[in-house]
Amino acid sequence: MFSHETQIRVRYAETDQMGVVYHGNYFPFLESGRVEAIRSLGMSYADLEKIGIQMPVVEIQCKYLRPARYDDLLRVLTSLPKLPTDHRIEFHQEIYRDSDELLFKAQIKLYFWDKDKNEKTVMPAALLDRLKSFYHE
Amino acid sequence: MFSHETQIRVRYAETDQMGVVYHGNYFPFLESGRVEAIRSLGMSYADLEKIGIQMPVVEIQCKYLRPARYDDLLRVLTSLPKLPTDHRIEFHQEIYRDSDELLFKAQIKLYFWDKDKNEKTVMPAALLDRLKSFYHE
Amino acid sequence: MFSHETQIRVRYAETDQMGVVYHGNYFPFLESGRVEAIRSLGMSYADLEKIGIQMPVVEIQCKYLRPARYDDLLRVLTSLPKLPTDHRIEFHQEIYRDSDELLFKAQIKLYFWDKDKNEKTVMPAALLDRLKSFYHE
Amino acid sequence: MFSHETQIRVRYAETDQMGVVYHGNYFPFLESGRVEAIRSLGMSYADLEKIGIQMPVVEIQCKYLRPARYDDLLRVLTSLPKLPTDHRIEFHQEIYRDSDELLFKAQIKLYFWDKDKNEKTVMPAALLDRLKSFYHE
Predict the structure, then answer these.
(1) pTM (2 decimals)?
(2) Which residue, C37, C41, C136, D123, has fewest beta-carbon neighbours within 10 Å?
(3) Could you tell me the CATH number of the domain that includes residue C39?
(4) For residue D123, what are the domain limits?
(5) In terms of Cα–Cα distance, which of A113, A111, A124, A93 is closest to A28?
(6) Which chains are within 8 Å of C by 3+ CB pairs?
(7) Among candidates A31, A46, A41, A36, which has minimal Cα distance to A134?
(8) Is the Cβ–Cβ distance between A17 and C19 less than 8 Å?
């Protein structure tokens, strides 16, 4: 299974007056996790947009287990349990503090979207080929 | 069942380069919906914090059906299917454009949290009493 | 001189762990102030974009005098000391709590930008005509 | 003179529908620049808060020269032209893309604030001592 880890330092801007990260500010962290995961495959999300493919988020399920705090160095784990077979892709993502303290987990579903045709599309072959090697038996 | 509606004008800051509202920016809209719903009951969320009660978000399930756009005047519908019976409360929220175009829907679970004791608590009696009238048979 | 006032309720998302509004979150408040000021003239900023005109911010000077807090109902005053005569426009903006407590003030300079030609342009005549009435002797 | 450089990758969340970074989203970039600059001196801003010192922003002057774009790897240069002699500190900050394309520059003034006494204070001696070495003749 393909998985990837990236690190994010919590900014002051991302906290709220509860003294922890505002619940809506975890989604840019997840976004960075997915973006760096894709980049590690040799193609950036910016490259995808240049060839006319966008990836809008269509569904989220998430749980907040422990609060992330200012200046924490978070580990964002991004994994792809299944290869996409149509216009949909679903990532599983977890956010840890230090090696083993799980703070947050999410399942997040996105579509591959053809910007010019304004309709659903599929993952570009070049990216899919890279991914396939992670799912060989 | 208790339900409440509030309106929100989409800011430029809330869009992204896809030309629509960034998916993470719906959560402050939902927050405003819940805050105004509680205010309509005669007690503000700020009042709750003054008596030492915080309401951290612990779980979200949501679907993005159609994109909200810059300068849209959104209607945020907030409802409470069940009276809270312990430290948990779950809101159902929907965001519409105009009278009938559903853009987004979410179920969002929060805890009542005693800030000083740093432990779970329950909804203040004054607020619960106000709510009860909406659930009479 | 043209001036306009709009109200904004501070969201939890806009606070930080200092217990006040994060300094970077005043800029969406100013944006709302300018947008509503323009709308009061009979043309929305969204309309401007539809005819190919964008207004990027090019310069800001601002002072933070007293902190805005969660749930404050802020008054954003937007005024235009001089009619624009070229591609530049400068707004003076102030943010108050209640009737007379000045929290923040800013001078903010923007350009009129022709999106298709990708070059400077001027304020559309229809909008300029509306504004002129505020500067008659 | 003390100066420091840090890198920031632009997130999708930080763009707006103009296709560039929203003008208000440069301030968290500057914040990260200052925070990493202070950390390089052997004390984190989080450490400062633990000993009761906050650093609210009180004044900003800034210019937007060229737009930062999605996925840009920005270089944030943070320098301190003068050692602080009272409760005020002023940073000069610049944001570059690649080695030499200047996008944005700012002067940003902050106070040292004693959280418990709720009054102005000065830079902690330990931090000032570290800084002094950069201003020897």
Answers:
(1) 0.97
(2) C136
(3) 3.10.129.10
(4) 2-135
(5) A93
(6) A, B, D
(7) A41
(8) yes
Distance from CA of B18 to the nearest CA of A (A): 8
Count CA atoms closer than 13 A to C102's CA, side-chain side: 10
Q: What residues have CB less than 8 Å from B100, skipping those under 6 apart?
A: none
Number of separate domains in chain A: 1
pLDDT in tens, B13-69: 999 999 999 999 999 999 999 999 999 999 999 999 999 999 999 999 999 999 999
Q: In this structure, what token pair is assigned to residue B104? A: 């987004």
Residue linked to tokens 């530049």: C88
Q: Are D7 and D76 in contact (CB under 8 A)?
A: yes
How far apart (Å, rounded) are the C-alpha atoms in residues D75 and D98?
Answer: 7
Among this protein's residues, is C129 annotated catalytic?
A: no
CB-CB contact of A6 with A78 (8 Å): yes
Q: Is D57 within 8 Å of C63 when comparing Cβ atoms? A: no
d(CA D63, CA A35): 29
Out of D15, D17, D24, the one facing B70 most closely (by C-beta) is: D17
**Phi-psi group of D100: left, alpha or beta (phi > 0 → left; psi -120 to 50 → alpha; rest → beta):** alpha
Is the pLDDT score of B136 beyond 80? no
**Percent of chain A residues past pLDDT 90, beyond the cut:** 97
Distance CA B37, CA C64 (A): 31
